[in-house]
Each structure stands twice: as C-alpha cells, then as structure tokens.
Design goal:
By secondary structure, the protein is α/β, with parallel strands linked by helices. 31% of the residues lie in helices and 16% in strands. It contains seven helices and twelve strands. The strands form three sheets. Strands 1-2-4-6-7-8-9-12 form an eight-stranded parallel beta barrel, surrounded by five helices. Strands 3-5 form a two-stranded parallel ribbon. The protein has a two-stranded antiparallel sheet with strand order 10-11.
C-alpha cells in the first residue's frame, strides 16, 4: 500500500473521552443493499425484515450508494441507481417497527464498477469537501429518522492516511448526528487508518482468505481465521476500540470463497454454512468483538421468492439456520460470555 501502519499513543487522542457514546448489545445484523432507485420501496421489504428479526438479528444495514466518475475525480453524486431518501426513511421506520436497530452505511463507488479502494483524488481538498457533503446528507437523514449508527466511510483505502481531513469530517458529522460513528475498512486496510481514535467502533469488512479444500469442515475453516483473530485482538487493545465486522459472508457455491463478488462453481449450501459456522465459532464471546453484519440477506427489490443457490445470501439456506442457532445462544464459542453490551465501543 506504500504507507506505514498508523501508530497510536503519539500525541493526544482525538474525539470524545472514553467511554464513547453507548452502543447497544453486540450487533447481529444482515445487510439489505439496493442498486435500484425504488429498491427500498419494495413491497416485500416488511417480509424480509420480519424474517431477519426471527433469525435472532438485532440490526440491519442500509447502503445507499453514490458515485464518482474516476478514481482521481472529486465529483460525487447520486445516480439513477441510488435509492431515494424516502425509501431509506421507509426502511428505517419499518426496521424499528420490527425491533431492529439500523446501521446506515453510505457507499461510494466508481462509475465503471472499479474497486473503491483505488480512489485517490488528484485534489484531496476538493474531494473531501464533496465527500463531506455526501456524508452530511445521510447524517442529517439519520438524525431525522433516528438511525442507531452511521458509517462515515467504507473501504476508501486511498484516503485514510489523510488524518486531519478525516478528523474534520468526523467532527462536522458529530455536529449533525449524535449517534455512534464507525468507519468500515477492508481487512487489509485497517492498520493504515489514521483516525480510529475519532470514531466509536472499528469497522472491518472481513472477506478473509480461508483454506481451500475440505469446504465442509468448520474446524479447518476456523483455524484459517486465527491469524486475523489474533491481529484484530491486538489492534483493539492498542486502539481502545471494539471491532465490528461491518461486512462478512461467503457464496453458497464451491469454492465457497469469502467476498460479495465471489465466483462459485457449483451450488453447495453446506460449504456456505461451514463458513458461517467457522466465523461464529472463532469470534463469539471475544470481549473486543462487537458483532457481525452478514453480506447480505437480500438485494432489494428481490426479483423472486425463489432462493438463488449461487449468491451470497444466507436467506432460506443452511447458513441461516447456523446463524439462528448461534444467535439464540444454543452454541457458545471458545471465548463465550453473555452477549451483553459493548460498553462505549471499548474492549
């Protein structure tokens, strides 16, 4: 990446004194993305939310997406695929009606569908001004409709070294929105984020490469999580922040490769379930672990009631039953403790 990991303990901490704003009990969530303007107006959204609540989830994640034309550009705007504010507000109200907390996680993507981690603005000042307006838009919406947490960014690896600019953005966001803030880093990016002390939770999108072969053995897959488990535990201790898996998941095909853009070969819901089992077995009960948002429950509007065998959704598959079993407390991880609050987002 060409950058040195950010070292904490130099100078004063930024942001509120610990403990940070209170955070509800560990997050058990599913993402509900949409890439259609009226996607959050889906008449079946209530059915999805009801099913999510029955799974034992206590959160959903909404991901309205804006776009910029190129990696070096500083024009950021909604497109015809960006959900309406009315649709986002509707989903927030519906979710709260089902007893679900809401993480509002605005995404910034490139027009050509390239990796958002490649965004490196040619004029950083102009880009942060435009990006700040984007986040402020959803901070105002979140404040108005009472969202429970807001992500100020997702996987913007090419910008996270800009500490002063990010600190200013977070400070402006807190003026508008009084809830919990996080940033969601890719799993190979989090050490380079220069402003963890300004947010309440460390978000990590954990599409971690797992051992190939023996796809049905959760024990083997769980061993593959050990290096990241140990690294994140050390990082949480150093930063004084708990870690939320802001995205995690794998496809229901072989190979069941972690990641939202995985290319499965043949349907295999057993392999997907083993991947979910391995993650929950590895991290459940760790005191620094704030929970997980699985990517994804469904992409709205869902085109059919039929379960799609090769996508990343756990809905209606063995992985959904794995999640429900763990979230009901019928399984305990090796580090298990009661699933109580992550107080202030600190370990």
């Amino acid at each position: 990446m060409g950058l040195l990991p950010f070292v904490y303990g130099l100078g004063e901490r930024h942001g509120p004194d610990l403990p940070a704003p209170g955070i509800p009990p560990r997050q058990r969530g599913f993402a509900l993305p949409t890439y259609v303007r009226d996607g959050y107006d889906d008449p079946r959204a209530g059915d999805h939310l009801r099913s999510i609540a029955r799974s034992g989830a206590n959160w959903i994640q909404l991901t309205p997406t804006w776009y910029q034309p190129a990696a070096g550009a500083d024009v950021i705007r909604p497109s015809l695929t960006t959900p309406t504010d009315e649709g986002v507000a509707r989903m927030i109200r519906l979710a709260h009606g089902y007893g679900l907390n809401v993480l509002l996680k605005p995404h910034l993507d490139l027009d050509d569908a390239g990796d958002r981690g490649s965004i490196r603005p040619a004029r950083p000042g102009h880009w942060f001004a435009a990006y700040g307006e984007f986040i402020a838009h959803y901070a105002r919406l979140g404040a108005r409709y009472g969202v429970d947490a807001l992500a100020v960014g997702t996987e913007l690896a090419g910008t996270v070294h800009e500490r002063a600019r990010w600190l200013a953005l977070v400070d402006r966001t807190r003026v508008v929105y009084g809830g919990s803030l996080l940033y969601a880093a890719h799993h190979d990016e989090y050490e380079y984020v220069a402003f963890w002390d300004a947010v309440d939770l460390i978000g990590v999108d954990v599409y971690w490469p797992l051992p190939r072969g023996r796809h049905h053995d959760p024990q083997v897959l769980a061993r593959g999580w050990c290096p990241l488990r140990d690294a994140l535990g050390d990082f949480a201790a150093r930063t004084g922040r708990c870690v939320l898996f802001a995205e995690a998941g794998c496809s229901s095909g072989v190979p069941a490769t972690p990641g939202p853009s995985a290319g499965p070969v043949t349907p295999d819901t057993v392999a997907q379930a083993a991947g979910y089992e391995a993650l929950l077995r590895t991290f459940t009960g760790l005191p620094w672990w704030a929970g997980v948002h699985w990517w994804a429950w469904a992409q709205l509007p869902a085109p059919t009631d039929r379960v799609r065998p090769l996508d990343n959704s756990a809905q209606g598959k063995r992985a959904e039953h794995v999640v429900a079993r763990w979230w009901a407390g019928r399984n305990q991880g090796p580090h298990s403790a009661p699933d109580g609050p992550v107080v202030g987002g600190t370990p």
